[in-house]
Write a structure and sequence with these properties.
The chain is mainly alpha-helical and 186 residues long. It has one domain. It is 64% helix and 0% strand. It is built from 8 helices and no strands. It is globular and about 55 Å long. The structure holds zinc ion.
Length: 186
Amino acid sequence: MSEFRGHVVAGVVWFLILAVATSLLLPRLVGNRGGWFVLSGWGFVAQLAVAVLAALWPDVDTASRGRKVFYRVLLAFSLYSIARSQWKMAAVIGLVGILPALGNHRGWTHKVWAAVLVPLPIVLLPLYVSDDGRWLRTPDFGKISAGLPFYLAAIVGLFSHLAADGFFGRLLARISGGPAKATRGD
Ligand SMILES: [Zn+2]
């Protein structure tokens, strides 16, 4: 399995395991289905897409298919922001695009702190951007549920990548008989 496909599969599997565990465990523990965590319908599909993109994201620091996918998504968001004259948003997206190039492969994009901090804008932006695209001085905490399910999906995807590169990657290498080594795009 290619590294690209491996990370896509890992992202899907981790998210599905979490979705099943959540729908089985939460009703027993807190008496609801955990709708704040796993959405239904198209929301679920969007969460899965976020988890897969997040599972590919750490390899933006190297020549990988994950980098191509990520930068195409970033380009689409950038063009959308420019078309709507949302200059601050376009500038933030540009900054996000620059940062991965500042580190070595398996550098900061593969750290646990990055997995928690990098997706934070998913939950913070809805609090600070009004429905008509204006920036708010004080956060609107009533909109926390807009971003939280996607933030959590992103964290799941990012940790699936770290696990696949780390412990599980070494395990697979041992099973297949070769030493674990960092190869291009993994
Ligand atoms: Zn990696």
